[in-house]
Amino acid sequence: MITIYGNKIPKLFFMAAFVLSFHAAKGQSIMQKLKSNNQTSHFAQALEKTDLSSKLNKSGPYTLFAPSNKAFDKLTSTQQENSQLLLNHIFTGMATERSLKAMTEVTCLSGKTIKLKDAKNGQSVSVDSYVIIAPNIRASNGVIHIINGVIK
What we know:
Elements (H helix, E strand, L loop, with lengths): L1 E3 L2 E3 L1 H16 L3 H7 L4 H9 L3 H4 L5 E6 L1 H4 L4 H4 L2 H5 L2 E3 L4 H5 L3 E3 L5 E6 L6 E3 L2 E10 L2 E6 L5
Parallel strand pairs: 3-9
Antiparallel strand pairs: 1-2, 3-4, 5-6, 6-7, 7-8, 8-9
Helix pairs in contact: 2-3
């Protein structure tokens, strides 16, 4: 039993509450997570315009390197609507930051192979020379890593 403010509450209650809150957080798809994140909403809009969002609403799993809005906004509107460029940021499979540290390259849905490098000084993994600024955003059908650039 756990005592909080003089009341005894079973550990099981806290464990159940934790599991339920974790499950609810994971219930959103990659697209829902991208749209609701103020760092990736512009990338999400581009995926919807090109109808790639329908692919990311499927079961997956997918790993997505989402450019931050700041990085994505530097592209021209033509580049932002280029399906191949958008597909450079997605690959099949679930790769957390820990998994990425063990990899040297991945092939994206566009067919492009991108290099991964584990920074030895405690920094995050770099993806085609861009740093992962927010790793391991888990979704029901994969994982998102926000990067500080656009993979061309």
